[in-house]
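Late entry, beta-D-galactopyranose complex.
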Amino acid sequence: MNRRLAAGAAVVGTAAALVLSGCGADEEEAPSGAGTIGVAMPTETSERWISDGQTLAAGLEEAGYDVDLRYAGDDTAGFKQADQVQAMIDGGAELLIIAAVDGAGLGDQLKAAAAQDIPVIAYDRLLLESDGVDHYVTFDNYAVGVAQATSLLQGIGVVDDDGEPTGDEGPYNIELFAGSLDDNNAHMFWEGAMDTLAPYLEDGVVKVPSGQTEIVAAETWRWSKDLAQDRMESLLAQFYADGTELDGVLSPYDGVSRGAITALALDGLGPKIADGMPVVTGQDAEAASVKLIREKMQYSTVFKDTRLLADAAVAAALAYLEGGEPEVNDTETYDNGVKMVPTYLLGVSTVNRGDIDEVLVDSGYYTDDEITVG
Ligand code: GAL
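Prediction complete; structure with ligand written out below:
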């Protein structure tokens, strides 16, 4: 029978439990009821994808579908996600919802899906270099980058609450981190952030002492916390050992932020922003980072309400399954290299320390306990 999810935890039926629990994640689930929807998620190392998968499964099951939910462990070398998606197709999935590990890595599977008229919805991450993607649900990814850079500039005092220059001419030292370059979102975040920082970099109000201002140098492969920590440590050793102060770190994702913060804390720069911790941005409002924001270790995060994203994906799926077309509000931004993918975009918001209760707790995204330290 259908899975039911309660209080953010998976309460599962037997067949589905194999898939959701991660044990036996490659096993197939027998289709029943209205049919089976394949949901391919990239990794369970990030809190958000776990809750995305759960919310999607709950919504689709509510509508009477069985869900074949699989996590790919961020693996590309072993083609795990490609194998999982192929298994979903072979197992008779009526529709696929995919958050890719490698945006361009599923070409053969998307071709097979198209040949069988299986609609494919790209979830948060654009599926690249294929015409086998029908629809894309995501957040305004360029706006995420703008929000991150604006928050960084606010944190160091160069712009005010409205994003207007305060007249403070600095100079302030910052370092820049990007996401995984096989994820189209990493490029969009970077573009939004760099466009926002550009005038301040040109005027010398903010400087990047490492000189690493190209996305390739700033990449964090697979959005890895550990790689971010390594890079931050080596930046500190190479460019800050002489006492040069670091005022801010542009981070595109909370896991990367936590890696950078770990390196900064170990470096003894001080455990609190007020005591000298650089301003560190983030994204996803992961509980571990919201705690750090409460502790004044991380400055901000960009919140994307993944409940709304999952709802949008479920609505799009049902539109296809009922013979219609999903709602689209952007047809100009997301060229995947082969086609302009019709997109449904959601908005984002920046969460600073003072916004946590209103935006994250009052809205029911977290209970206070889940983001309380200790
Ligand atoms: C991106 C996504 C971000 C973050 C990151 C790492 O694709 O847009 O919100 O989750 O992956 O998981």
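Confidence is low (pLDDT under 50) at residues 1-32. Will revisit in the morning.
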